[in-house]
């Protein structure tokens, strides 16, 4: 789950350092490109509020895997976007994945890990959050110089696939 958190948060903050090339490539103003951050945040809030209501009766593993799958699709949509609408739709899917994953993460860790190890499990998830929030923007900027903004976003796709496989195999 920690890898999933790292990929989610890295994807969320990646545009911060890549707004100019994104805007130039997609024919957007920098302000409009910056809305990619707001769009993912808005959808994260909505999803976090509705997640339990809409998915409470479904197996948690399937729900978590669905959110990780959405993360993968989001990364592909953003990487391959040819216009602002596709780019924003990909960012909206990312928001759904973020809101859903975060709204379930603490409860899932508490159910998967023995009581004496819950603090360590939560620390790993929150450590992944802190790591990704710290390195995503500068790493995106650095990678953007060499492989472009699309390449920077594409890097999250195989990581999301790895997180999906790892969750599929390890979550009971």
What's the arrangement of secondary structure elements?
Layout: H1 2-13, H2 19-26, H3 30-55, H4 60-80, H5 84-112, H6 118-154, H7 156-170
Helix pairs in contact: 1-5, 1-6, 1-7, 2-3, 3-5, 4-5, 4-6, 4-7, 5-6
Q: Features of this protein?
A:
globular; 172 residues; mainly alpha; Growth Hormone, Chain: A
Question: What report would you give on this structure?
Answer:
The protein is mainly alpha-helical and 172 residues long. The chain has a single domain, classed as Growth Hormone, Chain: A (Up-down Bundle). Helix content is 86%, strand content 0%. It has seven helices and no strands. The longest helix has 37 residues, at 118-154.
């Amino acid at each position: 789950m920690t890898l999933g958190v790292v990929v989610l948060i890295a994807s969320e903050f990646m545009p911060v350092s890549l707004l100019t090339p994104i805007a130039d490539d997609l024919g957007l103003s920098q302000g409009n490109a910056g809305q990619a951050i707001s769009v993912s945040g808005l959808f994260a809030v909505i999803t976090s509020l509705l997640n339990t209501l809409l998915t409470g009766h479904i197996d948690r593993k399937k729900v978590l895997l669905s959110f990780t799958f959405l993360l993968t699709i989001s990364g592909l949509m953003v990487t391959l976007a040819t216009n602002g609408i596709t780019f924003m739709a990909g960012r909206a899917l990312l928001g759904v994945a973020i809101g859903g994953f975060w709204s379930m993460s603490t409860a899932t860790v508490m159910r998967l890990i023995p009581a004496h190890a819950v603090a360590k499990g939560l620390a790993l998830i929150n450590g992944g959050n802190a790591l990704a929030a710290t390195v995503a923007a500068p790493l995106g900027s650095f990678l953007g110089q060499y492989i472009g903004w699309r390449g920077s976003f594409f890097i999250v796709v195989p990581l999301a696939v790895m997180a999906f496989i790892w969750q599929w195999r390890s979550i009971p």
